[in-house]
Specification:
The protein is of the alpha/beta class. It has one domain: Rossmann fold. The protein is built from eight helices and ten strands. The protein has helices at residues 54-61, 81-84, 102-112, 117-130, 146-158, 176-191, 203-209, 232-241, and strands spanning 6-21, 24-39, 43-47, 69-74, 77-78, 87-90, 164-168, 195-200, 212-217, 220-226. The protein has a six-stranded mixed sheet with strand order 6-7-8-3-9-10, with helices on both faces. A four-stranded antiparallel sheet has the order 2-1-4-5. The protein is globular and about 50 Å long.
Amino acid sequence: MPDETKAIELRNVTKIYRKSHFFKTTAFRGVDNLSLSVEKGVIYCLLGLNGAGKTTTVKLILNLIFPLTGEILVMGRPVGAETKKKIGYVSESPYFFPYLTGFELLDLMGILSGMSKKVRRERIGELMGFLSISNFVNKKIKEYSKGMQQRLLLAQALLHDPEILIMDEPYSGLDPVGISEMREYILKLNSAGKTIFMTSHIIAEAEKIAVRCGILKKGKLVKEFPVVKGSLESEFLQAVKEG
């Protein structure tokens, strides 16, 4: 039977990228023999400097790219079409259709997910209230601020009511008010039972909400530990400076 106490599990996962330039091919490891597990119902933050392998890890879990070796499980099952239904994804660099309204985008995402019109309307209404987007959801997305875009992105990730929310740098580009609002949404979603797996390089924010952290360096998991308030910055700096 699948072990559903673990929302996400990576076992000895390696991903190699290859680049060709002037007839020469070079290879480098996006992640290197990576093993980690995320217990169901927690907030787990994967930390690392730019280029450490955080986004590669996210794409592997989402089954957007494939490992050279190793195994990836979601709710105890190998990643694939069925496990994707359990995941909502908030991208660091999303692309929006600028001439759609926010409502039109959410409705389109609902159609693509196979939701009936009645269910789509009910779910969009719930998210409009939860994320306080009612005052701009009928505006063209090209008019949105970064904070508005991030809330709309979160709404589309939650549309199908996933068990797991994967967030790649959710605070990217947000001002202090936007960061505070995003933090509160994450905490509320976790309180409602959702597992949150997020990447970040903003140590102070990770420390405020994460239960457990892992630190990546050059594709390797160099440290994994429960978060103790007031210690995360020193743990991170020590991990990335060593070696």
